[in-house]
């Protein structure tokens, strides 16, 4: 153990300010003990102010260390605001503005202390002392203080960033998660063995439910609501341990009565479960435990009714781990974070534990807060009866970059404030992929904050925070999640966020304290809903012509409100509940469909012609069918369908009910015809991994067919039955469609998701649909910080309005690229500037590109007549590259080169390289060629990988592989070695490397799907030798290669110009064109690479070669030397302390000579030429550094 760590542990048990001086001397050689009396900062709350010393780091950062004694006993919540303000006042004072940060120690007379790092956030390039951040460890000798000792005791203090990491919530999360996962895995394994459970998923969920309940109790006991103790669970287990440990009865005979009786019934009721042998004092504590209810402590069918237990040793193991960490019942804010177990922290942990497989990733608080607030502003702009200025709305929901005391909060009349409140109190908000509930909790907090601000500012009557939050959950928040465990976690988050503000006297309530959330957060597949053989539409019940079903749905709405409040007075029978009532509706729907099909069967069998009304309101004139006579195929199909429907009806009674939006959320669809706001972070599941998350549809292809059917059902006018949805579409594209369908007419759709649909081929159909039907308000990117560190994906935030019949062609979409992290840039003044922008606007913080719907359509459409722009087909556009990632100089070049730029695809054939279908057979190295003695006439040099190409000019001598080129028949090859090789290939065992049969083994290359369509499978016919080629995937070395008659693999894109010339080749290798290609590529690969397939490269706007003449310069050196990284080529150091935009480019001399000809033709100024170098380097650096989370 280090000396510093020993001092820290001693200090906790025997507090002394003097010991901190010794601690900091051990932690940092740069620490200077400069004790200074700070009594001038003493006030009514603080005394004994002292500056302990300072640390001056090598990189010019510095840190001050101060201590104050608080006059009242310190607790986790008491005095936090005053302490934070004291730290800010000291750092803002003129004498201390030299410091980059401060560590502040606030302690009380008994040795509790708060150990905080506080520092100002820079706005722009300088500190303005208005926006601070605080990270805090609360230390109490009664706690284990495990995380504090590990982080502060073990981490380096060599530079300020090291100290920030020691106070980092990410670092603390990693520590907790690593240990939690190990313990959780062990408990699952032992529980499975002990109970002989075969279902792995079921036992994992069972243990997860156990951990969720204990975690919740950890927060409950933090308020001393059980037995007036913060350590009730530890004491409860300790009592059992002394008497019965090893009998393995703690779960069943002690925890079960605690969960399902003590916490699930009003106070005063004696725990009656079994012979428990509780001490009398413990029994009294259980009898007076708070009546929580809410659902968490009700037995869960399928988990709590199996007789499963968790062995004593595993419970001890888990409790020892869990309560080694301290709990706090407060949610963190961006500005102020306690480094303890809080509700959000546990949301992150649980999602990391089980979500990775399902593609879900926890959305950071900053993004959640931004999306919630923007959604509310946009919704109010659209739905207020009396329009209010956007500036006032942004001031209400966002902060200015000014001092806290100078925040504006909007200016409204009393009437306006009342209308805003009324609108916000009746919102319906849904997250269709709710996960652990980050967006629902975020919305609850924003709505509560806003309501409080308005009520205080305008002297309106208000409820308590607890009652306000409860109303918000009841009236406004909804979610759907396919995994049951995720529903539990989401409910836990909502309960905890509500519980934080529960008044202390509520613990003695004889009514349930927590609301029932079973019908606020539903389990089910948000995308696919089937009843019987039919896929059920979102608003299916609205077209059902059954008055009985309509009446039952109306009753269900009222019943759910009572159920939320735990009001059971309307129960007709003990088993009556909303689930049962929903089941009755589903059964009646199935009965109607069965009757419809049985009536059709009668007609087909010529029993009795009748007219029927289908389940979905269609009138079928079945007299015509009757006249057709017996149709055995139809009869057989109908009989099968009826059998399936009856089977489905039986399955319903065993918990097989699907999620149907209009019934599950009848109160929303009956009143509003949809939700006001759809918000969320849909799962990141690539097309090849899409499968039924419920496990009911085993075939992936069948599930994807249902997804396509869902799109066509949701928007049948836009997607006919013959429409093909791009099969490569990732799962989130379907969430876009379903989310938009769930909105009412005035709704707002806000997602954070992969940016790939902005640029890739499978995004075309979604772009086309949005341009026709859904006004896109904002597409937001952040160039400075990646939102999801744990996922290999780059994201954007989109805000889209509900579908309309037709969009005004002059409607303006705004593409916003933030150049600084959201924390440093999302201020009212910037958002108002975005709102008011009518033309491209750029500054140090952001760039906004406004563009009309008409222009977006035109730039993505290929017209038969480009001049008349008629008879066009939408083929997609690079929204991400052109409007988000493009630097300002790109638009300058477009303007100056308007008549000189041409699409590469207009002057050259751009295509994929060779796709052999069997690379292992067709590509041969020298060893393989010698082994088989293959004749030279059948071999040609080939470029397989871009790594082989160091120079522009490629020599065959530098290539290590040949490609087999053979157009002869076997008869013509008789007696050759190549025939022996072909015959060998037809007997070789081959493992299939891709496609649906990946991993399977077949015999013979001729049986591969990729080659079997050829007349002679070994014949690569119709080969064309490209003039030049470009790597399909690049990182930092960007190069067009001159092939010199050499073929290239599909890893490179082949280019065949109509007119071959050195001007064409050098033009493609210009720095301007490299910038161009950076904007066109697919940059969402997540690991820094960029992909450019032929379709992307075709769209490159290059300088027409006819304007170029390189005859007067010597280009031989340039095309024969090794091409370096783009940073070396341009003479820019991206790692320098000097920002790229402020560096003086020093391009390599031959590159500068080449670029000068391009720049001259474009008439660029000297400053603009430098901006080209800076911009391409910035684009590449943003791409690779964002992926590395720099």
TrEMBL record:
<dbReference type="Pfam" id="PF07669">
    <property type="entry name" value="Eco57I"/>
</dbReference>
<dbReference type="InterPro" id="IPR054520">
    <property type="entry name" value="M_Eco57I_C"/>
</dbReference>
<feature type="coiled-coil region">
    <location>
        <begin position="628"/>
        <end position="655"/>
    </location>
</feature>
<dbReference type="InterPro" id="IPR002052">
    <property type="entry name" value="DNA_methylase_N6_adenine_CS"/>
</dbReference>
<dbReference type="Pfam" id="PF22837">
    <property type="entry name" value="M_Eco57I_C"/>
</dbReference>
<keyword id="KW-0489">Methyltransferase</keyword>
<dbReference type="GO" id="GO:0006304">
    <property type="term" value="P:DNA modification"/>
</dbReference>
<keyword id="KW-0808">Transferase</keyword>
<dbReference type="GO" id="GO:0003676">
    <property type="term" value="F:nucleic acid binding"/>
</dbReference>
<dbReference type="InterPro" id="IPR050953">
    <property type="entry name" value="N4_N6_ade-DNA_methylase"/>
</dbReference>
<protein>
    <recommendedName>
        <fullName>site-specific DNA-methyltransferase (adenine-specific)</fullName>
        <ecNumber>2.1.1.72</ecNumber>
    </recommendedName>
</protein>
<dbReference type="InterPro" id="IPR029063">
    <property type="entry name" value="SAM-dependent_MTases_sf"/>
</dbReference>
<dbReference type="GO" id="GO:0009007">
    <property type="term" value="F:site-specific DNA-methyltransferase (adenine-specific) activity"/>
</dbReference>
<dbReference type="InterPro" id="IPR011639">
    <property type="entry name" value="MethylTrfase_TaqI-like_dom"/>
</dbReference>
<keyword id="KW-0175">Coiled coil</keyword>
<feature type="domain" description="Type II methyltransferase M.Eco57I C-terminal">
    <location>
        <begin position="878"/>
        <end position="990"/>
    </location>
</feature>
<feature type="domain" description="Type II methyltransferase M.TaqI-like">
    <location>
        <begin position="475"/>
        <end position="786"/>
    </location>
</feature>
<dbReference type="GO" id="GO:0032259">
    <property type="term" value="P:methylation"/>
</dbReference>
<keyword id="KW-0949">S-adenosyl-L-methionine</keyword>
């Amino acid at each position: 153990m280090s000396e510093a760590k020993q001092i820290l542990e001693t200090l906790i048990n025997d507090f002394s300010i003097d010991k901190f001086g010794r601690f900091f001397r051990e932690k940092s050689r740069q620490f200077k003990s400069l004790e200074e009396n700070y009594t001038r900062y003493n006030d009514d709350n603080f005394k004994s102010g002292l500056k302990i010393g300072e640390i001056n780091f090598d990189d010019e950062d510095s840190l001050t260390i101060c201590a104050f004694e608080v006059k009242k006993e310190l607790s986790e919540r008491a005095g936090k605001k005053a302490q934070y303000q004291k730290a800010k006042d000291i750092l803002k004072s003129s004498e201390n503005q030299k410091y980059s940060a401060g560590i502040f120690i606030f302690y009380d007379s008994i040795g509790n202390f708060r150990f905080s790092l506080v520092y100002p956030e820079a706005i722009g390039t300088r500190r303005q002392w208005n926006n601070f951040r605080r990270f805090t460890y609360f230390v109490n000798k009664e706690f284990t203080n495990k995380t504090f000792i590990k982080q502060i005791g073990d981490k380096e203090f060599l530079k300020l960033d090291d100290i920030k990491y020691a106070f980092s919530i990410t670092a603390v999360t990693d520590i907790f998660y690593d240990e939690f996962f190990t313990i959780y895995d062990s408990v699952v394994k032992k529980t499975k063995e002990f109970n002989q459970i075969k279902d792995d998923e079921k036992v994992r969920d069972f243990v997860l439910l156990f951990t969720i309940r204990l975690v919740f109790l950890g927060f409950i006991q933090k308020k001393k609501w059980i037995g007036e103790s913060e350590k009730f669970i530890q004491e409860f287990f300790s009592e059992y341990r002394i008497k019965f440990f090893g009998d393995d009865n703690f779960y069943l005979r002690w925890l079960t009565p605690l969960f399902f009786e003590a916490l699930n019934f009003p106070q005063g009721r004696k725990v009656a479960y079994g012979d428990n042998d509780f001490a009398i004092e413990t029994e009294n504590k259980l009898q007076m435990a708070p009546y929580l209810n809410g659902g968490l402590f009700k037995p869960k069918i399928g988990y709590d009714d199996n007789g499963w237990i968790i062995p004593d040793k595993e419970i001890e193991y888990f409790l020892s781990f869990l309560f080694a960490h301290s709990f706090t019942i407060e949610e963190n804010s961006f500005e102020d974070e306690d480094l303890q177990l809080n509700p959000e922290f546990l949301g992150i942990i649980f999602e990391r534990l089980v979500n990775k497989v399902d593609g879900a990733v926890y959305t950071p608080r900053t993004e959640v807060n931004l999306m919630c607030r923007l959604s509310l502003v946009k919704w109010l702009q659209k739905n207020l009866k009396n329009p209010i200025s956007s500036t006032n709305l942004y001031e209400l929901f966002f902060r200015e970059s000014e001092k806290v005391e100078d925040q504006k909060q909007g200016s409204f009349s009393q009437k306006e404030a009342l209308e805003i409140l009324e609108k916000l109190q009746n919102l319906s908000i849904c997250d269709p992929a709710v996960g652990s509930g980050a967006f629902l909790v975020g919305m609850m907090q924003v709505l509560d904050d806003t309501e409080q601000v308005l009520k205080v500012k305008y002297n309106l009557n208000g409820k308590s925070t607890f009652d306000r939050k409860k109303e918000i959950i009841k009236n406004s928040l909804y979610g759907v999640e396919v995994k049951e465990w995720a529903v539990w976690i989401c409910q836990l988050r909502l309960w905890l966020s509500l519980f934080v503000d529960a008044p202390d006297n509520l613990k003695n309530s004889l009514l349930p304290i927590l609301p029932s959330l079973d019908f606020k957060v539903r389990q089910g597949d948000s995308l696919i809903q089937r009843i019987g053989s039919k896929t059920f539409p979102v608003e299916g019940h609205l077209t059902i012509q059954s008055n009985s079903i309509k009446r039952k749905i109306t009753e269900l709405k009222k019943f759910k409100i009572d159920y939320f409040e735990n009001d059971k007075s309307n129960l007709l029978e003990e088993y009556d509940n909303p689930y049962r009532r929903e089941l009755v509706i589903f059964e009646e729907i199935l009965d109607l469909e069965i009757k419809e099909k049985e009536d059709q069967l009668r007609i087909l069998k010529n029993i009795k012609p009748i007219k029927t009304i289908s389940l979905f309101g269609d009138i079928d004139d079945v007299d015509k069918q009757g006249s057709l006579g017996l149709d055995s195929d139809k009869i057989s199909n109908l009989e099968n369908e009826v059998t399936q429907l009856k089977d489905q009806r039986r399955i319903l009674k065993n918990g097989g009910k699907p999620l149907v939006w209009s019934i599950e959320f009848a109160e929303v669809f009956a009143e509003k015809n949809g939700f006001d706001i759809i918000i969320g972070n849909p799962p990141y599941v690539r097309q090849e991994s899409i499968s039924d998350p419920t496990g009911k549809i085993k075939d992936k292809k069948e599930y994807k067919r249902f997804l396509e059917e869902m799109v066509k059902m949701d928007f049948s006018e836009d997607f006919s039955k013959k429409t093909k949805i791009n099969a490569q579409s990732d799962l989130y594209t379907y969430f876009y469609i379903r989310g938009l369908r769930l909105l009412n007419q005035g709704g707002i759709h806000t997602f954070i998701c992969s940016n790939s649909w902005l640029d890739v081929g499978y995004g075309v159909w979604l772009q086309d649909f949005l341009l026709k039907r859904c006004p896109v308000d904002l597409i937001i990117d952040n160039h400075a910080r990646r939102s999801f560190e744990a996922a290999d994906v780059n994201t954007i935030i989109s805000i889209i309005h509900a579908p309309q019949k037709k969009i005004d062609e002059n409607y303006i979409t705004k593409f916003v690229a933030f150049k600084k992290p959201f924390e440093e840039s999302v201020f009212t003044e910037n958002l108002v500037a975005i709102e008011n922008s009518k033309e491209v606007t750029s500054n140090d913080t952001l760039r906004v590109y406004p563009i009309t719907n008409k222009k977006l359509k035109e730039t993505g459409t290929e017209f038969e007549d480009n001049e008349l722009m008629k008879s066009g087909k939408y083929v997609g556009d690079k929204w991400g590259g052109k409007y988000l990632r493009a630097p300002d100089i790109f638009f300058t070049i477009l303007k100056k080169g308007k008549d000189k730029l041409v699409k590469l695809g207009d002057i050259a054939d751009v295509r994929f390289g060779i796709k052999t279908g069997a690379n292992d057979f067709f590509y041969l190295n020298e060893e393989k060629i010698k082994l088989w003695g293959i004749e030279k006439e059948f071999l040609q040099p080939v470029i397989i990988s871009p790594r082989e190409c160091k120079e522009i000019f490629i020599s065959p001598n530098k290539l290590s592989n040949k490609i087999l080129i053979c157009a002869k028949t076997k008869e013509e090859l008789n007696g050759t070695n190549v025939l022996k090789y072909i015959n060998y290939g037809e007997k070789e065992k081959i493992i299939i490397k891709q496609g649906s049969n990946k991993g399977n083994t077949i015999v013979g290359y001729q049986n591969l799907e990729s080659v079997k369509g050829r007349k002679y499978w070994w014949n690569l016919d119709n080969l064309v030798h490209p003039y030049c080629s470009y790597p399909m995937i690049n990182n930092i070395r960007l190069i067009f290669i001159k092939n010199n008659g050499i073929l290239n693999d599909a890893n490179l894109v082949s280019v065949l110009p109509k007119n071959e010339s050195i001007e064409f080749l050098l033009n493609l290798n210009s720095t301007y064109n490299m910038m161009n290609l950076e904007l066109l590529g697919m940059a969402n690969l997540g690991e820094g690479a960029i992909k450019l397939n032929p379709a992307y490269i075709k769209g490159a706007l290059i300088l027409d070669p006819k304007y170029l003449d390189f005859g007067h310069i010597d280009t031989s050196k340039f095309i024969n030397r090794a091409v370096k990284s783009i940073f070396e080529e341009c003479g820019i150091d991206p790692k320098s302390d000097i920002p790229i935009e402020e560096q003086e480019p020093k391009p390599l001399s031959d590159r500068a000579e080449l670029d000068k000809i391009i720049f001259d033709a474009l008439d660029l100024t000297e400053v603009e030429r430098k901006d080209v170098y800076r911009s391409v380097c910035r684009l590449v650096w943003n791409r690779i550094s964002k992926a590395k989370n720099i």
